[in-house]
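Notebook p. 47: complex prediction with glutamine.
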Amino acid sequence: MDAEKLLSSISKSSDETEFYTPMPAGYRPGKTKYVVVFGTVMSGLGKGIFSSSLAKVLQDKGLTVAPIKLEGYLNLDSGTLNPFRHGEVFVLDDGMECDMDLGTYERMLDQDLSRCNFATSGQMYTRVLEKERKGSYLGRDVQMIPHVTGEVKSKLRELAVISHADVVFVEIGGTVGDVENAYYIEAVREMAFEEGPDSFCFVSLTYIIEPPSLGEQKSKAAQLGIGRLLASGIQPHIIACRAQAPVSRKVREKLALYSNVPMECVFSMHDCPSIYVIPEMLQEAGIDKAVLEILKLTDRVDEVAAARARQVWRRYIERFHAATRPVVIGITGKYTSVRDSYASIIKALEHCGTHHGVRVDLEWIDTTELTDDRVGEALRNVHGIIVPGGFGARGAEGKISCIRYARENKIPYLGICYGFQLAVVEFARNVCGLTDANSTELDPDCKHPVIDILPEQKQIEGLGGNMRLGGRDIQIKPHTLAWRLFNGASEVRMRFRHRYEVDPRYIEQLEAGGLVFSGRAPDYPIMQIFELPQDVHPYFVGTQAHPELISRPLRPEPLFLGLVAAAIRRAYPQEAEGGSAKPAEAGATAAKPGPSQPVGSGT
Ligand code: GLN
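Predicted complex, structure tokens below:
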């Protein structure tokens, strides 16, 4: 029976059949190919980086790709997760709060994603339970197999329909053997059978241990992990071995022997100097070719486009490695586990540093104990400062001290969301003379609530509340610094995640004090970007948005570009006189952040 017939016979729900595979409208079986990446041995192998790099290589070859991450946890999204435990909450243009891996995919593929590219167990079970209440299962007892697995398969096929992807990349969260993700593994096993031969490529990402006391690579843990995958009914096509050093032939032979994977499909994916070189590493190893052969896509490759894309990427890596001149950016936040909680900010600075030919070194500034009289000492080494997004009162006054110091001492400053709000508080207090100004998030009874809860949030607050989330347009005031950074665009789009905003009653007073609101929401008096004129301060900019979420290696984000350019002028003032990295030029080569691209549309 061909895939189409098989699928039409199993997609109907009835009490006479054990099959249940809901099929989204417009799905053409066999048209879309799937690459599934499983982790074995341990978590933290970089499945997302591996999978996004592989997807990029195929995208560069002219294929349309769409990634999806299947998370095991029961939360409906990542919105309530503690970033210090789970890494930053990444917000998509459609408002989906998701895992930081989606950021890796967006950056690597230069593609905007949506809620179609992210699933959690909470979402999958919700779908099943809602159907159960509606009586959609026609009296059947609702089971993990086929009902929950049916929803997973449906989710993957929905993405295939919406993205028109040639290849969907499925990253299964966690490690093979976890209770939480077992049904995802079962779902892709079923689906590979349903879709027929050559439609699925299973990749087992594993880890080769090299205990220092032995000085030798050991493959047992990897064998056992892959053994678990085999026991789940999945024969991997490819084994990619993460390791500290290149994986020896002996180890690869052992894995081949124990897992029925030919030697030429057991690859070493040892540590490398930066994630940007991984696409190149995959191609040198030949993983891309192996995947294309397994999926019978080899004749679809556009060699000319591939060579061009590879060249562009190589040039980026060269520039990245050549940018060694240091510039120091201070970020307020505690050093402990900050790397993942501020992943997108770190990446945005990396993109902009590479663009301007400098290496951005970060200095983490713990503000919990910081006061006005000690702030100068804490900031003595920095050429620029970022106050990133945040919540709550802890360290807030210390952040305000940093902002004041940056403003008064002309240190380039970029305030992001919370950093925007606190800068408005600082400005109101110390420039506009509203000494009791504050945000109602910090002091609900303050005399001058310059930052207050959004009116739209006030209405829903009692109902459990939610944040203003996702992509919104920003109207840019002509002839401002922001306008120059955005290349004269009258409107740009950014992503938001906040509950508070500038209280419109204070706008006039703040403007009279000299603060310029250069970006506003088109329909409401919501202030989205502020700046100080450049004859007053070299770079004092804040945004209610999260510009770090839309920065891409080849399209660095303009407000970050402006900050890094200003920091370079501070670090190397002699050169600034010669006119390099002027603010007006800072955004010149960055493409305008336009409205979202549809999922899977390529770059
Ligand atoms: N706590 C602030 C608010 O809710 C800022 C949020 C943020 O920085 N993402 O508006």
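Notes: The chain has 23 helices and 21 strands. Residues 63 and 300 are 8 Å apart (CA to CA).
Next step: compare against the earlier run before touching the bench.
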